[in-house]
Design a protein that fits this description.
single chain; mainly alpha; rod-shaped
């Protein structure tokens, strides 16, 4: 269960950073 939770948190971080990157790109493109 801990391993699953750890992976889930990592995936959330990855999604968060990817979203942040997309936001920065869209701001630069705007």
């Amino acid at each position: 269960l801990d391993e699953y939770e750890h992976r889930y948190q990592q995936q959330c971080l990855i999604d968060y950073y990817q979203d942040d990157d997309l936001i920065e790109r869209s701001l630069l493109a705007a």
